[in-house]
Amino acid sequence: MQHPSQASEQRSSLWLDAWIKLRKNRMALFGFVVLLILCAVSLLTPWIAPYSYEQQDLMLGATPPSSAHWLGTDIFGRDMLTRIMYGGRVSLMVGFIATAVALVIGILWGSIAGFIGGRVDAVMMRIVDIMYALPFMIFIVLLMVVFGRNILLLFVAIGAVEWLTMARIVRSQVMALRKQEFVEAAYSMGLSRWAIIRRHIIPNTLGPVVVYTTLTIPSVMLLEAFLSFLGLGIQPPQSSWGLLINYGVETMEEYPWLLIFPGITLSLTLFALNFLGDGLRDALDPRASKD
Amino acid sequence: MLNQKLCLKSLFLLGIISLLVALSGCGDYQSNVESGNLKGTLHWGNGTEPQSLDPHIATGVPEHHIISSLMEGLIHKDGETLEPRPGVAESWDISDDGRVYTFYLRKNARWSNGDPHNAHDYVWSWWRALQPALGNLYAYMYFPIHNAKAYYEGELKDFDQVGVKALDDYTLQVTLTNPIPYFLQLLDHYSTYPVHRATVEKFGSADQRGTRWTYEGNIVGNGAFQLKEWKINRRITVERNPYYWNADNVGLNQVVFYPTENVTTEERMFRAGQLHYSGIPSDKIEAYKQAGDPSLRIQPYLGIYFYRLNVEQPHLKDKRVRRALGMTINRDQLVSQITKGGQIPAYAITPPGTMGYYPESDLTFDPKAAKQLLADAGYPNGEGFPTTEILYNTSEGHRKIAVALQQMWKKYLNIDVTLLNQEWKVYLDTVSNHHYEIARAGWIGDYVDPNNFLDMFLCNGGNNRTNWCNPEYDQLILQQAPTAKTQQQRLEVFKQAEKLLLEEMPVIPIYVYTSNNLVHPSVKNFGRNILNQSNYRDIYLEPTSSSEVTP
Fold it and tell me: Which residues of A touch B329 (CB under 8 A)?
């Protein structure tokens, strides 16, 4: 019989192993550092941005990169560097908040369904199936129409449609875990179901969840750009990377810098996230760790 | 800079060439324009999906293009001079007092299903257009006709007393309340087009909106073309109508209308040889000019770009607020830096020079006075002014202007403005139902007369949409102007009315349109006129020797 504290010891060593492995993976480490820098810049933007993101100078218009405006200006004479920095705040926020919403709902839903099983599981998973069948665009549009346009709501709305896959992944993990001995041990010690889910099941599903999370963030960021373009997301003068790119495409022959710089920034972020995701997958794979 | 541009251009050309090579590899590839020139098919970038093809319901320019190919009025305007030319009416007489018009209809005019077409069709169609339940926003176009207004407003129940009579099958007599100089021009407007009674009644009652009579396979018209297919959001195809009275002289076999809301995409389609006619994004005009491209057409356009203010909104009720908004738009910067197509800053709602009419306006760009006005209205330095929303129909051109105005109002008045865009049909609904605060609008002349711009803002005008109502204004437009003795006096009355309108400012004029389009050189006999009306019946296609497309 295993002791509960032994289980938690195993967990922490898994994380330690993962961290050691991740550090050896250069690409993953690079992704991690890039993300840290981007987050830091976004947090500090209001203090370090060189210009105002909404102040226009129509007579200046679109100018290519120069010493005054490192990344040039857009057709309204607004500094691109500033707009990319502010756009990053929105894009990264959407990425993290919407993914967090998806995580919370998905993990809770999946672990409850998987752990209780039986009829409850059947009902809960059929609900997930129904949600899958709904065209997610229509669902988001409906949410936005009913509750009005609001950035935070946008985050939640996106999160609310992105949790389905997460719920399925977690459920399958939990179903495999709940038959394991340490869970039975926890039962015999008199822990409640909820405590078991919280203390034992969820922490053990983290590997695949972390990986899937890093893959969700980029797709959420692209979704936001799409919604904003339809007039449902954020509105001018605010901006996000996706929107900057959308506008840049319209004038890419005349003012290529309006497309290139936001494009590079977004690609860099997506690369970083993918590298990190790949690295985490390798690092957290329990079979690989036994080698 | 130059190098960078050249490099990009050649890269782009390379892209196009490789695309063409790839496509030609798949077989005998012909672009739409090339195949269209051989088959007599005109490919037309129409901007957006039409709201409706019912001439008594539609109100927009994209709808106008399609309807004018499917139907014809009593007269039609010459493509170049806009002079009235015989349409369904072969000839007409005007009485000496200018009040009674007698039209002699063609005996060979037919509907597109072969049914005979006669004067009774007009009486019935105009009766239909004046049914209040139909919700015809253009009903006021009929008001010059004797008793038409009274009938529309329900004061008169008997349609026989309205000044429209079929003297016999091929003679139509129209009696006006006052002699007005522009009456013939109204008869080439789709709101006065006849509709096919049997078809309309087959799919619902005469005054029912949105029935299926305008759908593919149902609609019957009397124009040079008939509807062949309507693929929602993809294309609308019209083909030659064999029963059209002048079918032998129609130069095209088909016209295909493409609903492309994004003008950047449309311009690329044009460049790829997919379209004969398209719009052009403002940022590309300069490049076309420099390349000396013959497809670029910039010409005066009798239209005004303006913003509607919903005067029922509590914070827009005060005319000082509305004036303040109008006075803080830097129109010169807007047209030179954003729209870039030679547009003229507008300080009045009627484009200057319309039939010798030059509006007097005291509207200027004056941020200081505007700030004072806003303060007088109870919002010193914009404090307490609620966040206001600008509504526009989805298009990057409208977005750019809205973004610029948003910032101007923030800068000069310190008020917060948000933007909302909607697809064309939704936008039209929202504005008609007054569910907006500030809405972008454009008005293109239906006929050349100041009246066309000013009678929009009558109390019950279907296209007013601002909730603004001023009996004095109505009196000037409806009573004084039509009864003026001379044209000079008439214009004076219009000036007075317009001054009143601008003082109260339910609408903010922004600029006078120019029509900026791309027309493929193979399109011939494409009239040039300030209404930018295209007579599809006159156009023909002539393949050019060089199909080179620049830049």
Answer: none
How much is the ipTM here? Answer: 0.75
d(CA B116, CA B483): 38
Using DSSP's 3-state secondary structure scheme, residue B444 falls into strand
Q: Is the CB of residue B397 less than 8 Å from the CB of residue B339?
A: yes
> How many A-B residue pairs are in contact by the CB < 8 A criterion?
63
Which of B468, B466, B398, B389 minimizes the C-alpha distance to B432?
Answer: B466
Q: Do A254 and B287 touch (CB under 8 A)?
A: yes
| Cα–Cα dist A131/B219, whole Å | 40
Q: Say which amino acid occupies B480.
A: Q
> pTM value?
0.80
Per residue in B367-406, pLDDT tens? 999 999 999 999 999 999 999 999 999 888 899 999 999 9
DSSP type of residue B28: S
Is B4 within 8 Å of A256 when comparing Cβ atoms? yes
Q: Kindly report the CA angle at B26 between B21 and B31, in degrees rounded to 5?
A: 65
Question: Measured between alpha carbons, how far is A241 from A225 in angstroms, rounded to an integer?
Answer: 7
Question: B268: nearest CA in chain A?
Answer: A250
Positive or negative: CA dihedral B487, B493, B496, B500: negative
In contact, B5 and B290? CB cutoff 8 Å: no
Average pLDDT over residues B526-535: 80
Question: Given B264, B406, B421, which is nearest A237 (Cβ)?
Answer: B406
3-state secondary structure B144-201: CECCHHHHHCCCCCCHHHCCEEEEECCEEEEEECCCCCCHHHHCCCHHHCCCCHHHHH
CA angle B541, B547, B548 (to 5 degrees): 140
- B470 sits in which H/E element: none
Looking at beta carbons, which residues of chain A come within 8 Å of B394? 231
Q: Nearest-CA residue of chain B relative to A246?
A: B396
Judging contacts by C-beta atoms under 8 Å, the chain A residues touching residue B13 are none
Residues of B in contact with A249 (CB under 8 A): 264
Nearest Cα residue in chain B from A55: B407
pLDDT digits (tens, 9 = 90+) for B69-127: 999 999 988 888 888 889 899 999 999 988 999 999 999 999 999 999 989 999 999 99
